[in-house]
Protein 1
Amino acid sequence: MPAPRKTNTGSNTSTWTGMVPVGDTALAVTDTGGPGIPVIYLNGHMASQRSWRRTIAELGPGWRHISYDMRGRGRSQRSADYSFETNLGDVDIVLAARGVQRALVVGWSYGAFVAAHWASRNPDRTVGAVLVEGAQPYDWIDEIDIEQMRKLWKRLNFLMVLLRPTGLAPRMTAEQMADSNIEAGEIARERELGPVLDNITVPTRYVNASGSSLGSKGDGQELIRASLDRVVERNPNIEIHAKVRSSHGSILRKDFRTIAQAIRAVAAGDRNQPGPSTR
């Protein structure tokens, strides 16, 4: 296992990078350190922590940025367990390893589901949540052919193998990727996700994209996003911060400034600690 590494950030703190052991695997973690509000970033289904670099740069050194690669993604090691509950528990493992008791959670796509569940279950440990293009309660899993989805992942497996050395694809089998996607669809059901969102008691902001995403058809993605109207009506702690023009896949690249604004807005709504310094 590689030794932890510190990198000079040009401020009074150093960035820590290293591997955090958990169960049968180890997670690649980056922690900028410092006295600012801790923000933990949760990635999309096939993404790595590199996805957040623009948002982190936009917020600047006044915050403590903690990012990591989920199991089998990026530089993290493979695992026999890629279940949602395991990924949710890994948030606690990473925060404990870095000595963080309370954090602002930010998630994109699959990571938004993880962030929503974590905020709902841990209100005393959550500054707030920013949910980017995910955690939208909709029964889309009932509208697709499960066997066709499994066949699609098998067809994509060759491409995934080619991309793995670049860190742009998870080191998971086609079956594991399909199972994870199917489980995400089940978690997204209104009857499953609705109560989770209704239970959130900390400031929470959504940043939604426009148009379609990989695998969506017609206006299906917009119907999924529209489900949030009922969520914000029921829970005053949740707001839609913005709907941007970029797509599901490009939102972190093109609208990182809007995401950073949402993070600042959530932090400003936290009454338990002063706001961070900003550039």
Note: Confidence is low (pLDDT under 50) at residues 7-12.
Protein 2
Amino acid sequence: MSDAPRQHSIAWSDPAALAAAGRTMSGMEFLTAMAEGRLPPPPALLLIGARMGSIEEGRVTMRLVPAEYQFNPLGTVHGGILATLLDSVMGCAVHSRLPAGRGYTTLEFKVNFLRGVGLSTGEVMAEGNAVHLGRRSAVAEGRILDGAGRPCATASTTCIIFE
């Protein structure tokens, strides 16, 4: 076992300013601005090492490269990191369908872990799809796929919609 310490640090932009900008745009406009780099990513994505992928109405992808700082004691990416990635991508899929002035928050979500994710897995892609968008609630599904297209985790969520 190596005693050499490892270090991981992040820098982020003011999340209050990001949230304020988001209140003036539709979900598609907001997410597209982040994906194109016109707005910074939220600190949570930076913390787990994820980045925005494609943005379509009702469908959002994100990518994550497994790294040691994400590991649990067994040497694989911690389930909480993968759950955070799924919560983010499913929530963004819902957000992509919302007009300016409307927001959402996760009410509940469920995750099924299907295979471990480690350094040898390589980059994974998380996909979120909005299944239903009502006046007060929304339902979305998500999945994480490895580079060969094999599922690593699946999830579903219910979100509350608000003004």
Note: The chain has a mean pLDDT of 96.
Protein 3
Amino acid sequence: MGADTDSFPNLPATSWAVLGMLSFGEELTGNDLKKWADWSIGFFYWSPSVSQVYAELKKLEDLSLVRSRLVTDEGVRGRRVYGITDFGLRALRSWSRDSDVDMPVLKHGVMLRLWMGHLHDPEQLKRIVRTHIDNLRDRAQRARLHAESSETEPGWAFTQMSLRWSQRHFEAEIDLAEQLLGDIDEAAARYREAAVRDEDGLPVPRHPGIWRTVADDHPGST
């Protein structure tokens, strides 16, 4: 069933992410929201800049989805804190329940570089993959620590669930990356033994444009 477009404003998912961070019972500054995003949704969706957070807050406040107030402590510069409104909470519930389920967008910089592997020595490609594995291990460890830190706050039960999923996601990516180390050798051998190359070492296609036919055979391909 499609979403009821009258039940929530037409906003990008980043706006809903900021609004969602205000649904945990706290009023927060823009800087707080930046840190909260890095601590939680940054593992699986978005790590915004401070300027992006404040731009989203202005938009949400203009739409009456959030409210703000200035908090001043004696001897301390005032802070503007933001909270979700009743209207914002209703809209957030509707969006998170009824919006279309989209496929995640995969933009994998390491795989893009491996896709160009014919330009490089296999050992250079393996160094890229090993660095990628080290980065993934660090992210998995951080996600695990953040999930464990959520244990004392029952209201973060679903945050903890998401962080545990993030840890498993990074661990699965480590497995895939480790498999690539062997795949690189196989691809390099096939390229070396079977591909016809020009004077620059670039492949000469046997069937130019064959990818067009593949796309035509699978109408759902994009």
Note: Strands lie at 66-71, 79-84.
Protein 4
Amino acid sequence: MTTEPDLETDLLGPVLADRACGDCTVCCTVLHVDTPALKKPAGVACVHLTAHGCGIHAVRPVICRTWFCAWRRVATMPDAARPDRSGLLVSLNFERQPRNCLEGVSVNVRLLPGSDAIASGMAAAVLDALCDRLVPVWFSDGSEKMLMHPANDVADLVISGDPAPAHLREEVAAWRERYRAFVPGP
């Protein structure tokens, strides 16, 4: 048995004991799932989702037992940021073919259809809670995906490999070190 934390725990923190999914089933509809035990496209309700939650909760697939949104892991996110209440689903994202080193492993903040999270300030509060670590944060409103962290000047230097000016050198070096596995080789 390993005592090493998994990547999600390393980047987002452990699952918080005082935060439970409750009636929230946003992930059961919004997420794309492609595992041997369960396959479903994004935006389509899981076949096991009922009006009262998961119809096979006691025997649900491993992916459903072990996946947790960032609200369940990031203590600095507001309590009101639970996906069904906030209109935002925040998760760690793994891209099989990232366009750049900041897409390989990142946090994705998804604005759910009909959400007022931008107007209410919830999106800003969630982004504030997430943009304080060396993990890229992307925001998606359903039509466009925008990099929110690191700042554009830092991101451009990390991706390009160009020398950083003195005032950004330490920050750019930290990002490059963390994400060098995703930087294409010569």
Note: The chain has a mean pLDDT of 91.
